[in-house]
Amino acid sequence: MRKTQSQLRAEQIAKLQAEQAAYDKRVKESVKTAAFARCAAVEELYEMLGVTPESPTTREGKNGTVQVSSDKDEAKRSVRLVEVVARLVAERDERTTVPPEHELANIGLGATPFASGHTMGQHAIQ
To answer: How far is the C-alpha of 123 from the C-alpha of 117, rounded, in Å?
Structure first.
C-alpha cells in the first residue's frame, strides 16, 4: 500500500527529530568533557586581553541596597572578548597584507616581502 503525504511528512519529521536528538546528545557529552578546558581558555583570554567583568548594578531590596550582576551569564563580556580578538586579527591582517605588484617595483628587488621585511633571497645586482 502506498503511503500518504501525511505519513511521508511524519516519517521525515521523525527522522529529523532523531537526528536532532543525536546531535544534542553529542553536544551534551562534549560539553561535559571539553567545558573545563574551554572555560579555562576563555578565562585566560579575558585576563590576557584585559576584558573585565561588567560592573554590577545597585538596586534597592528588602534588606537595603544590594549589588546585582548585570551580566550573570557573561554574554556581554563574551561579546567584548570576541570584538577584541576580531580587532586584533584585523590589525594583524592589515600589517601583513602584500602590496600590489606595481608597488613591488618601488622596492627595487622585485621580490615579494614578508611581514618580517625579508624577501625570498633575491639580492640587488650591483
So the answer is: 14
d(CA 39, CA 118): 39
Residue 14 cell numbers, joined = 521523525
> Does the predicted TM-score (pTM) go above 0.70?
no
- Considering Cα of 78, then 84, then 87, then 91, what sign does the dihedral take? negative
Cell of 92: 594583524
Q: What is the dihedral of CA 23, 25, 30, 35, to 10 degrees?
A: 110
pLDDT in tens, 5-48: 999 999 999 999 999 999 999 988 888 888 888 888 999 999 99
Residue pair 124/110 in contact by the 8 Å Cβ criterion: no
CA distance linking residue 75 with residue 98, whole number of Å: 36
Residue 90's φ and ψ, nearest 5 degrees, are: -65, -40
